[in-house]
């Protein structure tokens, strides 16, 4: 007999930054600064991301586009790979993401694409420590999700592929 199953996840929406803790607000500010340095001449869509490690160190990144479109990379992976290339094996506590468009008004947060969720999940699983995802927006509310896994249900995660 077939079993129907359901996966749900919780997240918190904040009306104002005043309700967030200081570390999250500071991380969002770093993401916003990084967004200001994005290279997005094709989409005109500027994204910034900031990764905070357990040590408190923050690494940032922004989207880097390319005339051969698929060669570009999202802000989240630029920040994540920046962090993990400089501080391998470190534990990531949180990632903050924010965006703005030159062409239209963004009225809500942007959420990371599937590939970025998968990339973040790799380090969350390795460290066995949840990564908080803080989604900011210049207008509107802030969303906080307490783990990447919750944003990527039934994700590919075959630990037996890892040697050693
Ligand atoms: N982008 C990001 O940097 N992060 C996301 O989560 C979604 C999309 C970038 C990729 C591309 O440079 C532009 O936004 C439009 O898709």
Structural commentary:
- The protein has helices at residues 22-35, 75-86, 114-127; strands at 11-14, 45-53, 58-62, 92-101, 132-135, 142-145.
- The chain is built from 3 helices and 6 strands, in the order βαββαβαββ.
- It has one domain (12-154): Cytidine Deaminase, domain 2, CATH 3.40.140.
- The longest helix has 14 residues, at 22-35.
- With 164 residues, it is of the alpha+beta class.
- Strands 1-6-5-4-2-3 form a 6-stranded mixed β-sheet.
- Helix content is 24%, strand content 22%.
- Bound molecules: tetrahydrodeoxyuridine.
- Tetrahydrodeoxyuridine (THU) is lined by residues 40, 43, 45, 47, 63, 65, 72, 74-76, 110, 112-113, 116.
What top-tier CATH class fits best?
Alpha Beta
Number of helices: 3
What structural class do the secondary elements suggest? alpha+beta
Q: Provide mean pLDDT, rounded.
A: 95
Q: Which percent range describes the beta-strand content? A: 15-25%
Give the count of structural domains.
1
The major pleated sheet works out as: 6 strands, mixed
Strand order of the largest sheet: 1-6-5-4-2-3
Radius of gyration: 16 Å
Supply the CATH architecture. 3-Layer(aba) Sandwich
Query: Which blocks of ≥5 consecutive residues have pLDDT under 50?
Result: none
Oligomer: single chain
CATH superfamily: Cytidine Deaminase, domain 2
Specify the overall morphology.
Answer: globular
Tell how many strands the DSSP assignment holds: 6
- The H-and-E topology, N to C, reads as EHEEHEHEE
Distance between the termini: 39 Å
Helix-residue proportion: 10-25%
Look up the CATH topology.
Answer: Cytidine Deaminase, domain 2
Bound molecules: tetrahydrodeoxyuridine
């Amino acid at each position: 007999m077939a079993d129907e199953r359901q996966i749900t996840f919780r997240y918190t929406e904040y009306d104002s930054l005043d309700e967030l803790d200081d570390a999250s607000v500071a991380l969002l500010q770093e993401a916003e600064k990084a967004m200001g340095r994005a290279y997005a001449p094709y989409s005109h869509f500027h994204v910034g991301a900031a990764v905070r490690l357990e040590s408190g160190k923050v690494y940032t990144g922004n989207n880097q586009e390319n005339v051969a479109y698929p060669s570009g990379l999202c802000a989240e992976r630029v920040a994540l790979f920046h962090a993990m290339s400089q501080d391998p094996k470190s534990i990531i506590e949180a990632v903050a993401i924010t965006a703005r468009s030159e062409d239209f008004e963004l009225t809500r947060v942007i959420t990371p694409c599937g590939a970025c969720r998968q990339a973040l999940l790799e380090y969350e699983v390795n460290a066995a420590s949840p990564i908080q995802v803080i989604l900011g927006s210049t207008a509107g509310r802030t969303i906080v999700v307490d783990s990447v896994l919750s944003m990527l249900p039934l994700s590919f995660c075959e630990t037996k592929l890892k040697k050693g």
